[in-house]
Sequence to fold (173 residues):
Amino acid sequence: MSASEHTTSRAGRIMSWLAALALLGLLWLYFENALQKRDNPNHGLVAQPGGSGELTLRRNRMGHYVAPGTINGQPVTFLLDTGATLVSVPAHLGSELGLKPGGTAQVMTANGGVTVRTTRIAELGFGPFLAQDVRAHLNPGMKDDQVLLGMSVLGNLEFTQRGDTLVLRAPGL
Fold:
């Protein structure tokens, strides 16, 4: 094999590896997007507080309704939970969201009892809805980044579920 053939062969192998890596990267991007849509079909939802007064959500593959929102101006992902009395924030997100831990309280969760810290959310944005001075707690047992949106917010809205769709409205609309 001549030197030029060896160089050409080596360049071909390098190009093959680069093509394979590019293909893997494209497949990763595709499947990452597909998983995101499956787990949070409302991920791209854009609704500003003070808008239409109505929000329509689609259920995810687990049967839950999740949606983007804000706490004190910081983006969060809410998991709607009509079984939760208050908004429940993972404790590890508290300082990032500007939440100050208050007294301790014992709460019962789906995973059993846990000691939480009470807090107040100055401003919570969810679709076209804006709530202020919301009672909440910081839960050290929550390890992911989803915030449970409980009845301290949902109790102020009207909601209708049909099939895989949930429509939330401000009362009186």
User: Anything to note?
Assistant: The CA atoms of residues 54 and 169 lie 4 Å apart. The beta strands are 54-58, 66-71, 74-80, 87-90, 104-109, 112-126, 129-139, 146-149, 158-162, 165-169. The domain at 54-169 is CATH 2.40.70.10 (Cathepsin D, subunit A; domain 1).
